[in-house]
Amino acid sequence: MAVQWIGSPNKDKGREGFRPEAIVIHIMEGTLKGTDAWFKNEESGVSAHYGIGKDGEIHQYVGESDRAWHAGRIVSPSWRLLKADVNPNWYTIGIEHEGREDTPWSNALYDASARLIDEICRRWAIPCDRDHIIGHREIRSDKTCPGFEADVDKLVDMANEFQRDPATFNFIKKPGAVKARVDLNIRELAPTTATAVVRKIKKGRKLKYQGWTSNGMTVNGNAHWYKDSDDNYFWAGATEQPIPGL
Ligand SMILES: [Zn+2]
User: Fold this and answer.
1) The domain boundary residue, chosen from 116, 145, 164
2) Considering the domain boundaries, does residue 246 fall inside one?
3) How far apart are CA 65 and CA 131, in angstroms?
4) How far is 58 from 64, CA to CA, in rounded Å?
5) Residue 87 alpha carbon to ligand 1 centre in Å
6) Count of domains in the chain?
7) Gap from CA of 102 to ligand 1 centroid (Å)
8) Residue 28: what pLDDT?
9) Ligand 1 centre from 209 Cα, in Å?
């Protein structure tokens, strides 16, 4: 997907040992153009990693490995996974959306945001669920952000559809068999923990596969998944051959 780099001086290099574990959804309370200027202005003292326009264009202000300044204040939070005594900016990625709190979201805005969320979740092995994709006010309850029109449940559902889309995974056809190194789960139709477990396999059992993908969900640094004869997937890291084809 096309992302235009804008940049912002309002950031910290790196994440002090933390990594992105959740995505925070924001509303700009303004336009994409205005947000570009605001985040480029040192005096604003704020930023986010991404901004999405109502027509679906995506701008980036801060690299995902760096800390943006978008959700640093905690006020009566309701978020279950909030860490005690850690600024949430260290372990979250912020996405801004064009419009105001009462502006209905366009389909293009939902679509671009869900695609971006899908990509970020894969990149950082973030579970694509409502615990890990949250509205800003779940951290800071004195704000309405991301507004009354943002349907975060819908965003998560849409991103999950993309997570399951077979067209987004490469496939190397090369049948073989591999032994389960630990008890493992067979996942329904996609190389990700986002889909249902169709069956469980005991450690030591030999599993046949028709091939593999090398760009499934990254789990413990490994994005390889084998595809079985039913088009379901199991993570290569749980087998005695964690890197297929060697
Ligand atoms: Zn916000």
Assistant:
1) 164
2) no
3) 21
4) 14
5) 15
6) 2
7) 14
8) 98
9) 45
